[in-house]
Amino acid sequence: MAQVSLRKVIKAYEGGVQAVKGIDLEIADHEFVVLVGPSGCGKSTTLRMIAGLEEISGGDIAIGGTIVNDIPPRDRDIAMVFQNYALYPHMSVYDNMAFGLTLRKFPKAEIDKRVKEAARILDITPLLERKPKALSGGQRQRVAMGRAIVRDPKVFLFDEPLSNLDAKLRVQMRTEIKKVHQTVKTTTIYVTHDQVEAMTLADRVVVMNHGVIEQVGPPQELYHHPATKFVAGFIGSPAMNFIPARIEEASGALNVVMNNGTTLAVPEDRVARYRPHAGKQVLFGIRPEHLTDDKTMDKSNLAPLSLTPEVIEPMGMETLAHFRHEGTEITARLDPSTPAEVGKPLALIAHMNQMHIIDPTTDKVI
Amino acid sequence: MADGGAATLPRIEAPGGASLKRFARRRSTIAFLMTLPLIAVIGGLVVWPAGYAIHLATLNRRMTSFIGLGNFEILLESETFRMVIFQSVFFAITAVILKAAIGFWLAHMLHHIPANGQRKWRGMLLVPWVIPPALSTLGWWWMFEPTYSSINWILNIFAIPSVPWLGEPWWARISVIIVNVWYGAPFFMIMYLAALKSVPEQLYEAAAIDGATSWQRLRYVTLPMMRNIISITVLFSLIVTFANYDIVRVLTNGGPRDLTHVFASYAFQVGILAGNIPRGAAVSLFMFPILAIIAFFVLRGVNRRNKEEA
Amino acid sequence: MSATTIPVKQGIYHKAGSLRRERRWALWTAYLSLIVSAIIMLAPPVYMLLTSLKTSAEVADQSGSPWWVSSPTLENYWALLGNRMFIDFFLNSAKVTIAVVALTMVISVLAAFALGRMRFWGSQALATGVFLTYLVPDTLLFIPLYQIVGGLGLLDNAWGLVLVYPTLTVPFCTWIMIGYFASIPKELDEAALIDGANWMQMLWKIFIPVALPGIIAATIFAFTVSWAAFVYPTAFITSPAEMPMTIGVVSQLIRGDTFAWGQLMAGALLAALPPVVIYAFLMDYYIAGLTAGATKG
């Protein structure tokens, strides 16, 4: 039983600057929760408060049903994996993993059993006698995880664990972390600035910005139903396009009208939702993957428009086309076989089923 | 607010009542205890003696009565002491300039030879710094010995007349400086070599492509990058050289005719050998203002350096 | 077009300047400077060695080159090693140095860990104070310390030196240990904290092993400084039985006008041997300690 609860948790520094501004979060047992956000959003501070490395300025943090505000890290029964691994450089891999258990005076046989088991799970048995110096980045990362696993703690805390790895290894270790979680099932809180990591790993993603939680939800929900402009722009890569537009009513139907007059029809099922905003200035949000050339199967609610590309980026499996439209950058994802050329107008369609309308006064998605 | 959830959760305190705040307070207490021996050393063996020296310096010879600045006045009026001031300043400045220049030159040369040979040369060139100076000065003393001087023997080969190294005041001063430079230049070399190695190679490559000659690279890349370490080393060496005792004591012991005394050796002569403790303390204290000024600049340099690295 | 102006054989490239020659010149200058300075730097110890291998008669004989030993002998060394007084010098030096090094390392490592890692009220000011005391030379303090040590009845006693030598060693060792500890990533103590270590365990099991190169460098520094200390023993010690090496050789082996030069040089070399041996075997640590004061601090 190790759910984690944050209630109105505040971190304030001297001078009144608040890094975390009263956040509430309930994390269920066995859940894998990822805190994601740009640097300085308070995600690491939140994690360090859960670890007990930072004092809590206000609110309560409970682990497994007990409030741990005043408990030093060693008595919280947590384990943490750091960005730079923080392996003890003078100890062998085995000793690194055994250190926490030795300090807790576990019997030698038990320590040995746990270390060997963790090494087996992480596939690092042949490395046990080596020093961290002699390991590659990915291997060090495994050892750091092993150090957490052997402790069999209530909660795993990961602080940007993959940031120091190269892109290829990062993908590989991401899978590894997911596999480990499926094996040991310990409640996990994972901090990253990389939304792809967040999406791929999490049961639920917590998007943070400026010390507050913007939205909490499963990855798919954040992708399809972002609650705020920040989440809409943060989740997904390349980022969602935000195009200034107006909602205009014409004979019962609604249209999104861009500043240059391009008119896109709003799907019928959304008309009721957007009607109150008719006649108002809004942001029309559409992801690059939903602004594409006319080769898709799903033919419902497509709206044609034409734009002239400034830059074409062939990626292999797809081609990205960048446009400049009245001062906003727009990106579209094209089929690689589309003959797109810089300076030549391109016929595109917008998947209006996937669009979002953002009220620019509140930055909330309507 | 009172939604109940938080209130019903049991609040446990860590065993021994070590809450996080108390944990932090305990940390401060432990930290303070760990620094106590250090504070005892600094307080008992540096700060207190320094204050005590001031007290001592205001006493009469038998330390029975207070005579204010009497010792300082007598010293300033004495021809010998004025010579000591001159000699100390002259010695420190000349020696430090020479050490810095030679050290820089050697470091530069060492930096230019292939890396695998550097270790060997560095090892040889640092030998003077490793031998306790009182002992190596004995060797120099023997090399300067009027009758048997092995240096004069070499000079004579080149038809240069023998030099009265320690017999004549100016030559004696030069001898003291030679030995000090010999002893201290390797230290500068090591410091500068470390600093040279920390200048990124790409800066030189960029400068070379920008059209800088080797002299311009030295002037516009190396020196600015090393400015801080150069000033710290020079100032630090000024203190040490200014307060030097070993070399003067062994080589000339202040002679001939008390003309080569520096503050330290004169303080020793007056305070310990002649038994006038208060006046000896006064002599040492004359160093204090000069050292304090230099120390101020060293500290500033070091702080600046820390900020750069942070 | 260019084919008409440039002979075909030379192709389109022609050689301008000579990087190679420039580099070779620089290298020659470097080696020449290094050779000359190495000769100068090594001449005194070499001459000391040569003299120590001569008999008194050969030293006094001015007919040959002083830089040559015609009949080398170890008799000066044997004479010293059979000299009870000289052996006492060595034992005094060893006793004082070992005690001072142990004392210094305990004081500085504890203090550096507290100052660098635990942070408490006034820790910053104290760290600055440590550095300032490092800048206070022994020649400023020896007279008041003479009075203080005298007041404790420890004048002319090797243990009096153990009391005052820490002023030479502790500030610098603390200072460089602060630097070494500061270079250990903060996550390492956080990991240890989460692993359940208390402060002493963290210092003993993590910081000391990880900062071992720094500890070795500081130990070497403390050793060489205590071994070479000259001002304090000269001031405080008057009887040969309590003298350490440096002052013993300088004051006791010089007798009247009939200098036993060979034996004096042999004594000086023997006295200089321990720091030189340490330097020879641990040069990298020695140099690390030397440069750490300015680069780490």
Structure characterization notes:
Chain B: It is a multi-pass membrane protein. Chain A has 366 residues and is α+β, with helices and mostly antiparallel strands. In chain A, 25% of the residues lie in helices and 34% in strands. Chain A has two domains: 4-234, P-loop containing nucleotide triphosphate hydrolases (Rossmann fold); 241-365, OB fold (Dihydrolipoamide Acetyltransferase, E2P) (Beta Barrel), CATH 2.40.50. Chain A has helices at 43-51, 93-103, 108-122, 137-150, 167-184, 195-201, 219-224, 229-234, 268-274, and strands at 4-12, 18-27, 32-36, 58-63, 66-67, 78-81, 155-159, 187-192, 204-209, 212-217, 241-250, 253-258, 263-265, 281-286, 291-292, 302-307, 309-314, 319-325, 328-334, 346-351, 356-359, 364-365. Chain B has two domains: 18-57; 78-309, MetI-like fold, CATH 1.10.3720.10. Chain B contains 14 helices and no strands. Mean pLDDT of chain B is 85; it is low at 1-8 and 13-18. Chain C contains 15 helices and no strands. In chain C, helix 1 packs across helix 14, helix 8 (166-182) runs antiparallel to helix 11 (212-228) and helix 11 (212-228) runs antiparallel to helix 14. The interface between A and C is medium-sized, with 23 and 17 residues.
Summarize the helices and strands and which ones pair or pack.
The complex is a heterotrimer of chains A (366), B (310) and C (297).
Chain A: E1 4-12, E2 18-27, E3 32-36, H1 43-51, E4 58-63, E5 66-67, E6 78-81, H2 93-103, H3 108-122, H4 137-150, E7 155-159, H5 167-184, E8 187-192, H6 195-201, E9 204-209, E10 212-217, H7 219-224, H8 229-234, E11 241-250, E12 253-258, E13 263-265, H9 268-274, E14 281-286, E15 291-292, E16 302-307, E17 309-314, E18 319-325, E19 328-334, E20 346-351, E21 356-359, E22 364-365
Parallel strand pairs in A: 3-8, 3-9, 6-7, 7-8
Antiparallel strand pairs in A: 1-2, 1-4, 4-5, 9-10, 11-12, 11-14, 12-13, 14-21, 15-20, 16-20, 17-18, 18-19, 21-22
Chain B: H1 5-8, H2 20-57, H3 70-77, H4 79-112, H5 115-125, H6 127-130, H7 133-144, H8 150-157, H9 169-197, H10 201-209, H11 214-242, H12 246-251, H13 263-273, H14 277-309
Helix pairs in contact in B: 2-14, 4-9, 4-11, 9-11, 11-14, 13-14
Chain C: H1 19-52, H2 56-60, H3 75-81, H4 84-118, H5 123-134, H6 138-151, H7 158-164, H8 166-182, H9 186-195, H10 199-210, H11 212-228, H12 231-236, H13 245-252, H14 261-281, H15 283-295
